[in-house]
């Protein structure tokens, strides 16, 4: 059967906005985060402490962290690629970090300018420093169902990288279908390969919806027993180093599906959809979420 309850990791403020062509004002990012938490989101990717030359959209990371109202019990995770990012995140008061690498060598190089092995070596001291000060570490593996440069990716490679991140101390590893090419059989195979190496409770899925497969892929993962799902309000997002990648699956669509299945998320769909329209209006286009558009039309 399906899990009774799942954790939704809202990626909109980070994955969603990192790829915007224009500058999104810090005040809009902060209001987005506050509205998401008001709607019942308890786990969110708040911003990233990566190089502003690589991702200018996240250059206001410290301001975002300073301006949000940090409410108790909410996981405000920030993405960091190296020690420099970790130190900046700590200075900004982060209590939880996200680290990232890939199951594809070519993508790893494009995204972080190093090999997979080098990225793991770069992340090791980050994990050690985080754990030493009680900072929680979540991890991401990109290209788990295909790579824009290499095509097919073996589930065994995904499992190897996932196991390495868990061994370093990540309490959960999100399997990223970065370019949304996965279909349910592929995502299931990647999850199962990982579950043979690390407990299923440590596995999450992070599906982009480029090919419209994300909800089906998530359902396949839920059926295997995954209970942690990444998504982004209004379907915002994409990775600037993954050509053609569109947004994450819309949180609105995931919550609608889970409500229908009787799986608890703690999120109020009505308020979430209002948030989806808030950020879409700020960006000057309708949400990518079918549910958000349908509910507004009602
Ligand atoms: P590099 O150029 O090899 O790094 O980039 P470096 O260590 O040689 O440093 C170069 C310059 O960047 C130096 O500045 C550093 O100080 C600075 P300079 O001396 O030239 O003035 N620098 C930094 N500045 C601020 N914060 C930092 C930082 N680090 C170095 N943390 C690096 C290597 C990893 C830094 C770079 O490649 C980078 O920032 N990459 C991040 C790319 C990114 O953010 N991608 C999107 C997020 S991942 C994603 O979306 C996928 C995910 O959603 C899952 C999925 O969908 O699959 C998570
Ligand atoms: Mg992503």
TrEMBL record:
Domain named Pyruvate carboxyltransferase: residues: 6-273
NCBIfam families, A to Z: PRK05692.1
Protein name as it appears in the record: Hydroxymethylglutaryl-CoA lyase
SUPFAM superfamilies cross-referenced by the UniProt entry: Aldolase
Organism for this UniProt entry: Marinibaculum pumilum
Classification via PANTHER family: HYDROXYMETHYLGLUTARYL-COA LYASE
GO molecular function terms noted in the UniProt entry: lyase activity
Pfam families: HMGL-like
InterPro entries per record: Aldolase_TIM (IPR013785), HMGL (IPR043594), PYR_CT (IPR000891)
Keywords in alphabetical order: Lyase, Metal-binding
Tagged with keyword Metal-binding: yes
